[in-house]
Amino acid sequence: MKALILVGGFGTRLRPLTLSIPKPLVEFANKPMILHQALKAIGVTEVVLAINYQPEVMLNFLKEFEAKLGITISCSQETEPLGTAGPLALARDKLIDGSGEPFFVLNSDVISEYPFKEMIEFHKSTWRGSFHCGNQGDNSVDEPSKYGVVVMEETTGKVDKFVEKLKLFVGNKINAGIYLLNPSVLDRIELRSTSIEKEIFPKIAAEKKLYAIVLPGFWMDIGQPKDYIAGLRLYLDSLRKKSSTKLATGHHIVGNVLVHESAKIGEGCLIGPDVVVGPGRVVEAGVRLSCCTVMRGVRIKKHACISSSIIGWHSTVGQWARVENMTILGEDVHVCDEIYSNGGVILPHKEIKSSILKPEIVM
Ligand code: GDD
Ligand code: MG
To answer: Ranges for the Nucleotidyl transferase domain (predicted)?
Structure first.
């Protein structure tokens, strides 16, 4: 089986992290986003990456994983962004092999329990002629207008309507960005910049040939800082249920916390809930961390307090500093001692010498 992952897009909403590497490579729970999709287990042998931004970085990185994962990875490179459907037309020859088998198409920035097996079974059970199976999350999301919304018959899964980012409320079942498509869908897609959500799915739904299942378990688009942090909580919750031994334990741990084996944690720290501690990271004595993720190679100095924030690679947070409210430090940012950051979004390679009292971008 084959899968195409939509990895293009500039990832602007996840800046400043995406100023350093493409969004799909940004770590989530100590693993690049894109590697959370366990495709091998369900029989995918070939993955096509639809890329339009920083292709060299992606390629170098993934060659390393090709062997480890035992999957063939190839790139389909756009010279200009082709949206979410155009890349399928561009990769047509890679996706079609005459077998008539369906293939997966995945957004690269969603995190879930990926119900690939359920989707294959559902696809087989509804396949008559040219059905296409979209998948949709049933989160009672606060803002369905941020997503594609699916109006479906609950019993059969038949999609009546697919609408992308409509301000008007039509339902709260949202498109999860995980699809299993029959090759015949390619006959509907032209080689130009085009949106699968706006131009392709609404038409297939109108013909009553689009089907969906309600996603079991958790789901989150982690392409924006606030959702990234919310996704962390859901992910760690599910880890607690499925393989709790991976989570940290000890008197200094509260709730669900994932600590990389190479991270060093000092005396008297209080860590959690919902914290991820990346590799090579040093947390000095008396530090307080909650609802945050700290990437590789970071140093958190004594008695610093960090909550609801993301600390980018190789940054430092000074002694007694207080970093909170969706503060995002890009790569190599240094927050001086005793500084307060209330929602500062700091671009890479900066030194922060004075406090940031309200949410703002620091260039
Ligand atoms: N190759 C390529 N080329 N990929 C692209 C391009 C492009 O021009 N534009 C976007 N992508 C990729 C992104 O990297 C991402 O993996 C996926 O396509 C979706 O793009 P986003 O920019 O993340 O879209 P969204 O989050 O606003 O909305 C989409 O995802 C929601 C769920 O997370 C839509 O599919 C919604 O319907 C859906 O609800
Ligand atoms: Mg997205």
So the answer is: 2-235
